[in-house]
Amino acid sequence: MPRLDVRMLRVQLIAEELLELAEAFGVTLEIKHGEISVAPNRKILSITNAYDATLDLMVVVIGAGVAMGVDLEPGMGRGASVEHVEVHRRAQTRRRQMDQRPVVFTGQSWADFGGAN
After folding, report:
1. pLDDT tens track for 80-112
2. Closest Cα to residue 57, out of 104, 94, 10?
3. pTM of the model
4. Higher model confidence: residue 63 or residue 83?
5. Chain centroid, CA 30 distance in Å
């Protein structure tokens, strides 16, 4: 296991991205004393923010595995791997070039973007 400060950072990053995803979905997420509550809120839904938060959440969760020094690929199944981090980086670059719209890779495989197939 990594040092305590690294574990705390990983949990904080995951929590931040999860909160961003909840907000984009139009819900409020609270965790208090081990209890999780989810309630609707009146914020405007955002597919772009949900897309971004989902990708960022994947990256920080995979980063937690990397920080632990474990190989996540066997547990993720065929076609999913740590290469998602690189796919995300490329998608973020394309999004910046496309007026902040989410990039949707339809009809293509992960291999087309440097990932496993």
Report:
1. 555 665 665 666 666 555 555 544 444 444 444
2. 10
3. 0.65
4. 63
5. 19
Q: Of 41, 84, 39, which is closest to residue 60 (Cα–Cα)?
A: 84
Angle at 14 between CA 86 and CA 82, to 5 degrees: 25
Residue extents of the structural domains in the chain: 4-113
DSSP the chain: ---HHHHHHHHHHHHHHHHHHHHHTTEEEEEETTEEEEEE--SPP-HHHHHHHHHHHHHHHHHHHHHHT---HHHH-TT-STTHHHHHHHHHHHHHHTTTPPP---S--GGGGTS--
| Alpha-carbon dihedral 80, 81, 83, 84, rounded to 10 degrees | 50
